[in-house]
Amino acid sequence: MSALLARLRRFCPVALICLSPGFAAAEAVTVFAAASLKTALDAVADGFEAGAGAEVTLSYAGSSALARQIVRGAPADIFLSASPDWMDRVAAEGLLEPGSRRDLLGNRLVLIAPAPGPRPVSLDTETDLTALLGGGRLAMALVEAVPAGIYGRQALTHFRLWDAVAGQVAQTDNVRAALALVARGEASLGIVYATDARAEPRVAVLAAFPEESHGPILYPVARLARSGPEAAAFLAHLTSPEAAAIFTAHGFIVLVE
Q: Which domains, and CATH codes, for the chain?
């Protein structure tokens, strides 16, 4: 296989996979993963490929979009969601390999601004987000569909801040797109995962949302029933000490040892 073809397979977008049935060869593993996992999961996949010799195709998007693609027949072998709800959606269709699902990772939710940013703030019912925005936009993933956006709206609602800023929210298809808006200075503030902020030097963290302000941030992973032994091997690698060290280094909370 040529180097160019291998690279295309490795980072094939969801749309390309769905339009090209059978694109992945039998020895390849196709992973649909939440966009917030990209930096860490790229490194984990590199380690697996080096050791196992099997290729990994990683397709990143919002968990909602990925779940819908899988339900419609996209040829994923492994689904790594940023929300149990979207994994439940796939499970309800009978598409998961029985006994393969587990909660792999946890995360935190943070408020960010373009670096260097203003001083850190306290998040409570008295926080004046409108003043902090200064007429600018608040970047968030889709608040009705994408986990980071859902958690963000829950947190703002918890502190009775949502109504004041809802009209200034710039919604994006996934959390990495919201991160990019802030990094480029196109949004004054953003709500993303702590791991996203850690991966982007052009943003500064102003505050971390208390865990009690939103639902638990969990990343469940499972094999699809159609998957083969290579997928089982990659799922085992995701729970290995080597993978755990990478996820921890990128700021994730490892839940499976």
A: 3-106+218-254 (3.40.190.10), 109-213 (3.40.190.10)
